Structures are given as structure tokens and as C-alpha cells.
# Entry
Amino acid sequence: MKLSQDMSKVEVKGFEAKFYDRLMDIITLGYYPFFIRKVIKDLGLKVGDKVIDFGAGTGRNALIIRKYVGNKGKIVGVEIGKEMKEQFIKKTKNFENIKLIDQRIDEPINLNEKFDVVFISFVLHGFIQEKREIIIKNAYNLLKEDGVFAILDYNNFDVDRANFLVKFAIRKVECPLAEDFIKRDIKTVLKNFGFKNFDEYFYFRKYVRLLKAKK
# Structure
């Protein structure tokens, strides 16, 4: 089967987007807020860090990130979804060091600043490989030297041997691009763009991974 971008489910719209945070909490039986806080803690952020969040969604991540980077840090969200942007702006309006950019991440991003961390959460798997590589190139170009590209997404595993719920989620709930992503050696792709010094953190019985790569 030839994969195409129109198979993707990564750009959430309508009802699902409007109630995205609530739905994520329900689907995970209330675990998601604890999970994402753990992941962001594992980013190893410092006070004053500048972070750009690709596919920033509702702003939930930005608010957690701000707890680590403080008033001296900066968070830039990159998002195109109408409902997502509305929620992001509403949630972060009281914080001058959080801003939002209306920009596709699978097209060249040109900003006159560099960041300590580029974060992308459950977004990269929703693109065909050619677009994933554009996103990775954007991350590399936006990072300072020794900056970190942090990818939270599915780990590599054998979907055929996964438990029933995981297999169902990947093949019936997710788009075909997700299984393609799971099969790919993302570390090698990142190395080809100049990334190095990988750190990995695993969650949900190693079905999910935070992969950190240094520029």
C-alpha cells in the first residue's frame, strides 16, 4: 500500500479538537496528565531555556514547560488547527513568555532565533517520511549548538507481537502512517541530519519513547 499524507489523522479538527484535552484524559482513564508531566520532567529543562513546541495543540504542554523554564525562559508553540490555536491562546494569555505561531511544521520554518529545545509530541508519526524529514530539518535549523530535539512518539516494536490493545490502536484507531513510523530507524534518520548523543526514556511498557538527540 502506497502511503500518502491524506491518510494522516494528526491534524485534529472539530469536536475532537475542541475537547481534545478532556478526551485524552478520558481515553487514558485519567493517566495522561501524569504521563505528560513525567515526560516534560524528563526533558531536563533549565530556568531560562527557550523551547519551541511543534504541533503545540491546546497549550497544555506549554504551561507545564513554563514551570521549568520560568519567567526568564521562552516557549513558542507552532500550530495550525483553528480550535487548537483558540485553546492555546486562551490558556496562555496571562504569560508574556509564551507565544503562538500559525505555521505548518512540514514546511520550512524561518525564525530569527535559536532554541535550546525543540519538542514534538505524538505528531511526527502522522506524516509521510518525506515530510518527517522536513520537520527534522526544521528542528535542526532552529536549534542552538548542543540544543536538543526531543521526540515523544511510538517506539520501535513488532506490531504483530504487540498485545491486543496496542495492535488494535495502531491498526484500527491510528492511521497507516503510524505503523510505518514504528518500523523506521529514526535514530539513523536523525544522524543523517547531523544529530548525535541520543538519550531514550520509555513509557507504557516501552511502546512509547521520548528520544532526545543533540545537535
